[in-house]
Specification:
2 domains
């Protein structure tokens, strides 16, 4: 038997594509989050009256994490989508309050930034996974992922209506809650199930975030 036949096959080095995708995904999510944070700060100054509350809402901020997960779906795994969501939402907090500190009159007390940053560490991964699930092939994942996005606007609608008494903003958030499944669902069944799931999601998120967490922190 010849030496050529006995020789072990040479394995060509394979680039670490997973590591490269992870680095690109997380870096893009972080930078995008920071830029969106600056934009939401600017919009809060540009929008008239009580409408300036909208860019500073948790629902709008959660869209960044959802978008990060959706854009990375099928390219990276759920752990990376969760980290990207975390970095996107954390970057939003950093960008918002960083711009306030540098370009405005300062962010004031560190309490509010720390509260929002703490929430980003919870909501960011959740909505990153939700965005990835929305692009999934499993209908159940798509419904749950989209219902999370729809439901967070329902939570904001309840907050605007019951606590702040901002009726136009409440109706606007309620409209978004309904439009999200209608526009982003794939089938009539998926749209209906998403909307039905979003309603209890809204109420549960309201009870957990506003009634339990914020009331505990703010007294």
């Amino acid at each position: 038997m010849s030496a050529a036949m006995n020789a072990s096959p040479v394995t060509a080095p394979v680039p670490d594509t997973d590591r490269t995708a992870w680095v690109h995904a997380t870096a893009s999510a972080c930078v995008g989050g920071i830029l969106l944070g600056v934009l939401t700060n600017l919009l809060q100054g540009w929008l008239p009256g009580v409408w300036n509350q909208i860019p500073n809402s948790g629902a709008v901020w959660s869209v960044a994490a959802f978008a990060a997960g959706a854009l990375l779906a099928r390219r990276v795994g759920l752990p990376v989508a969760a980290v990207a969501g975390l970095l996107a939402e954390s970057g939003l907090v950093v960008g918002y309050y960083g711009y306030a500190e540098v370009a405005r009159d300062g962010m004031g007390s560190l309490f509010a930034p720390l509260v929002w940053l703490g929430m980003a560490f919870v909501a960011g991964p959740l909505f990153g996974v939700a965005g990835s699930w929305w692009r999934d092939t499993d209908p159940r994942h798509r419904v749950i992922g989209l219902a999370a996005l729809s439901g967070v606007f329902g939570t904001e609608a309840v907050h605007y209506a019951w606590i702040l008494h901002y009726a136009p903003q409440a109706w606007a958030c309620l409209a978004v809650m309904v439009l999200v499944p209608l526009l982003m669902g794939r089938t009539h069944r998926e749209r209906a199930l998403t909307l039905l799931t979003a309603v209890p999601f809204s109420l549960l998120a309201y009870l957990i975030f506003y009634k339990m967490i914020l009331m505990t922190l703010l007294g």
